[in-house]
């Protein structure tokens, strides 16, 4: 499982700037998708060999007792409790403040691994920085500059040193698709899980009370094996599952990461909210196969149904790669079709794409529509092979490929998805340019 880094600190110390730097490598993957707004607080990142989730607790105001600020404060509190590593940011230019000391006291109480990060340290002398912040009693501060990037790689390496590098889920360990059922509070996730699992055979269900890893529930349906990745601490009472924890964004994201297929549950009785879009965006960023379930279809009339469909089109247009189902988890209607789409999305995410066929499809695409010329450069796409699964990665070799515009990359993605019938999964394209400075000129 990818470790979760949580950024905490008073306003203006540079949390968002550090967050952006820590997640930047991933931005390019999901750039320019119509309708997609990135969640500025939750992201995936990679520095060197290290993959991680990163959470920015910006706006964290522990004094708010009601309303949206209170909600945010609660999620921040949860993030602190669920962090694998806390990075406590202070401002090297303004020095230590009483507010820093209050936050430090709160973080110490959490008992989570904690690193003191002195930001805006470009041009500052290490000894000065160390002396100033030593008083916090949090050990030697790590000096960084979020804007310039100084010290950020060392910071990540040091903070994550104790976590194992390899976090690919062991494919052999479970049979069949690993499914994460996600969505904001009250959309009907537990009801859906019961509809899918409750009546069927649950192969083994133990409660590893202390483990912080997501819990897995293997089950069988229609003679096929699946594993459910739990997001809410499910407990079984008789035949039904109950969620015993409140909604947690971090658990949701970790479950998505660990799954092959995410089932995003939406509530037809309510408008699509930012939080729906953010979870959807995260699934896309993680490259996970997706099935969208619009739940509570029984509770809405035809007029509302039309509105919902239009609302989805407008706000979740970037999910057009996924299949949508309009169901009633409560009445159990539409669930078999959901599972069919889960199977199809899983097959697409794990598909083997042969090199000769990929190359043929690539060449046909280029014949149909050549990549645009960029100044004196005309990108040349020569051959393609598969570079990974879940999501499928297509590696394209050629020259001057760095000049290929995003729109053309999207065209290639669509072409591969159609040719290999990969409905339900995002697909990634990586370009590898041969290092011959003349090869690309014509
Ligand atoms: N000199 C310098 N300025 C920085 C650095 N990192 C951030 N800043 C500046 O500090 C200011 C605050 O940065 P933010 O990233 O918005 O701070 P924040 O902690 O997210 O603030 P809130 O969203 O209010 O919690 C901005 O003007 C940044 O440009 C740094 O490494 N060096
Ligand atoms: N009419 C209707 N109500 C439903 C349906 N599915 C769930 N509900 C109701 O919606 C409410 C929330 O359902 P839950 O399954 O607890 O939702 P959840 O997403 O697990 O909620 P959290 O555990 O808070 O995240 C309950 O009152 C359900 O009975 C449905 O298909 N139709």
TrEMBL record:
Protein name as catalogued: GTPase Der
Species: Pseudazoarcus pumilus
Annotated positions binding GTP 2: 183-190, 230-234, 295-298
GO molecular function, one term: ribosome binding
BP-aspect Gene Ontology terms: ribosome biogenesis
The protein's role, per its UniProt record: GTPase that plays an essential role in the late steps of ribosome biogenesis.
Signal peptide location: none
Binding site for GTP 1: 9-16, 56-60, 119-122
Ranges where the EngA-type G domain occurs: 3-167, 177-350
């Amino acid at each position: 499982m990818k470790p979760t880094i949580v950024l905490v600190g008073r306003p203006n110390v540079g949390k968002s700037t550090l967050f952006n730097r820590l997640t930047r490598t991933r931005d390019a993957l999901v750039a320019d998708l119509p309708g997609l707004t990135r969640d500025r607080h939750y992201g995936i990142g990679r520095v060197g060999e290290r993959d991680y989730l990163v959470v920015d607790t910006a706006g964290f105001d522990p004094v708010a007792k009601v309303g949206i600020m209170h909600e945010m404060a609660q999620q921040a509190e949860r993030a602190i409790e669920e962090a694998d590593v806390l990075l406590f940011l202070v401002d090297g230019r303004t020095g230590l403040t009483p507010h820093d000391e209050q936050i430090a006291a709160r973080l110490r109480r959490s008992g989570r691994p904690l690193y003191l990060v002195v930001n805006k340290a470009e041009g500052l002398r290490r000894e000065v920085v160390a002396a100033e912040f030593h008083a916090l009693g949090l050990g030697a501060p790590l000096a960084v500059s979020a804007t310039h990037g100084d010290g950020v790689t060392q910071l990540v390496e040091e903070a994550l040193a104790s976590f194992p590098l390899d976090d690919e889920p062991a494919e052999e360990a479970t049979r069949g698709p690993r499914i994460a059922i996600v969505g904001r509070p009250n959309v009907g996730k537990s009801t859906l899980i019961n509809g899918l699992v409750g009546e069927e055979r649950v192969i083994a269900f133990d409660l590893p009370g202390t483990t912080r890893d997501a819990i897995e529930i293997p089950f069988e349906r229609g003679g096929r094996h699946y594993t459910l990745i739990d997001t809410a601490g499910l407990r079984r009472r008789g035949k039904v599952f109950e969620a015993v924890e409140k909604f947690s964004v971090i658990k949701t994201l970790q479950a998505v990461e660990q799954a092959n297929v995410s089932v995003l549950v939406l509530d037809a009785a309510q408008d699509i909210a930012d939080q729906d879009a953010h979870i959807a965006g995260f699934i896309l960023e993680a490259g996970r196969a997706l099935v969208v379930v619009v739940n509570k279809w029984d509770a809405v009339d035809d007029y509302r149904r039309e509105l919902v469909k239009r609302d989805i089109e407008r706000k979740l247009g970037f999910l057009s790669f996924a299949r949508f189902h309009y169901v009633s988890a409560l009445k159990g209607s539409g669930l078999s079709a959901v599972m069919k789409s889960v199977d199809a999305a899983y097959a697409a995410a794990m598909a083997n794409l042969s090199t000769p066929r990929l190359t043929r499809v690539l060449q046909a695409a280029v014949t149909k529509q050549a990549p645009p010329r960029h100044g004196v450069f005309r990108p040349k796409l020569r051959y393609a092979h598969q570079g990974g699964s879940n999501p499928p990665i297509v590696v394209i070799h050629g020259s001057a490929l760095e000049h290929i515009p995003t729109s053309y990359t999207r065209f290639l993605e669509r072409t591969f998805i159609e040719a290999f019938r990969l409905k339900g999964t995002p697909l990634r394209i990586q370009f590898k340019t041969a290092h011959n400075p003349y090869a690309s000129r014509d």
